[in-house]
Amino acid sequence: QVQIAESGGGLVQPGGSLRLSCVVSGFTLGYYAIGWFRQVPGKEREGVSCISSSGGSIHYADSVRGRITISRDSAKNMGYLQMNSLKPEDTAVYYCNQPTADWPWGPGTQVTVSS
C-alpha cells in the first residue's frame, strides 16, 4: 500500500527559506517521477515542480522558478523541495505525488509565509 508523508512546513517570514521533505513507502520510489503540488483553501491544487525518476529532467511552475529547487534521494525513498525567497503568495499546503497524481494523497505540510 502506497503511503506518502510530507514534512518541513512551518511559519516563515517573507524572504525566508524552508526545506520540505516527502517520504514514500510501499514501493521503490526510484522507478517513478515525483511532483510537488500546493493548494490554498477554495482553490484547485496546482503543480509546483516535478523531477524525473533519474533526476535528469526537472520542471518548475513559472510562479516559483528561480526560488525553488526540487531534488530526490531514491535510495531513501525521499523527495525534497528547497524553497527560498518565500513570498506570502507561497502560503499553501504542499503535497508530493506522482506528476500524474496517481498515488493516494498524503496529509501535506502547511507552509505559511507571513510577517
What integer is the average pLDDT?
95
Low-confidence stretches: none
Counting helices, strands and paired strands, the structural category is: mainly beta
Number of strands: 10
If strands are numbered along the chain, what order do they take across the biggest sheet?
A: 2-10-9-4-5-6
Describe the protein in words.
- With 115 residues, this protein is mostly beta strands.
- It is built from no helices and ten strands.
- Strands 2-10-9-4-5-6 form a six-stranded mixed β-sheet, with no helix packed on it.
- The chain has strands at residues 3-7, 10-12, 18-25, 34-39, 46-51, 58-60, 68-73, 78-83, 92-97, 109-113.
- The mean pLDDT is 95.
- A hairpin with a 6-residue loop joins strand 4 and strand 5 (46-51).
- Helices cover 0% and strands 47% of the residues.
List the helices and strands and how they pair.
Blueprint: E1 3-7, E2 10-12, E3 18-25, E4 34-39, E5 46-51, E6 58-60, E7 68-73, E8 78-83, E9 92-97, E10 109-113
Task: Name its key features.
115 residues; six-stranded mixed sheet; four-stranded antiparallel sheet; 0% helix
Task: Give a summary of the structure in a few sentences.
This protein has 115 residues and is an all-beta fold.
